[in-house]
């Protein structure tokens, strides 16, 4: 009986082993970061490959000297694209100065930089050729008030001589073609004879006297002479005649044949005599 069982076992075919399918297994990034102490997420590694770009520029810290902006010191700031705006730049300047005082940003002419579409990008701020000032807010208010007062004085002085200047402009236009000059000069003479309060500013008087000064004696023109070559009033009649004794070039532009290009302007002496009396 045993021999029969042994024969059956010897002749029976070997059993086939069960094969398990081959598979890949990968640990999740979450388990990796949990199991490994100090492991960083995959996203942080990717961000390190493309760091955020920063920009650099100089800001001039300003003070007011003789009603003008003057640089007292310069700071260099670094900023990101998200900080490229008026508020962000002011914050960076405050950090550089370690101050909490309100600041105002201006251009080189003292005009305030405000938040706008143009000032909300790094393209505007990264150009160091564009000079930018930072000035304490209170100093900027005083600076603006001084500019307004100065402009107001100029307007007041200019408006008081508006009529005189208009007549002088007409004189220039008439002198260019030497036409209707007598009529224009007569109007100027009548205006001068009224002795109104139009001419009250010493600065304006000086400006007019300089415009009608002789190129030789530097005094107000007497019997003025007009040069066609440069279309200008050049000097007194006696001064021009004295000049022509030794030269034949224009007093102003040095053109030749001055003797034939200069003519006397009659009637203007009466107008200019008014300024000799003031």
Shape: elongated
CATH architecture of the largest domain: 2-Layer Sandwich
Number of strands: 7
Query: What's the order of the H and E elements?
Result: HHHEEHEHEHHHHEEHHEH
- Largest β-sheet summary: 4 strands, mixed
Mean pLDDT across all amino acids: 74
Low-confidence stretches: 29-36, 196-200
Overall tally of structural domains: 2
According to CATH, the homologous superfamily of the largest domain is: Zinc/RING finger domain, C3HC4 (zinc finger)
InterPro entries: Znf_RING/FYVE/PHD (IPR013083)
Organism: Cirrhinus molitorella
Region (Disordered): 28-49
Protein name: RING-type domain-containing protein
Task: Please give a structural write-up.
The chain has helices at residues 2-11, 29-35, 42-49, 86-97, 122-125, 137-160, 162-177, 181-194, 202-211, 237-244, 258-261, 268-277; strands spanning 54-65, 68-80, 103-106, 133-136, 224-227, 232-236, 262-264. The strands form two sheets. It has a four-stranded mixed beta sheet. It has a three-stranded antiparallel beta sheet with strand order 6-5-7. Helix content is 46%, strand content 16%. It is built from twelve helices and seven strands. The chain starts with a helix and ends with a helix. By secondary structure, it is an alpha+beta fold. Helix 7 runs antiparallel to helix 8 and helix 8 (181-194) runs parallel beside helix 12 (268-277). A hairpin with a 4-residue loop joins strand 5 and strand 6.
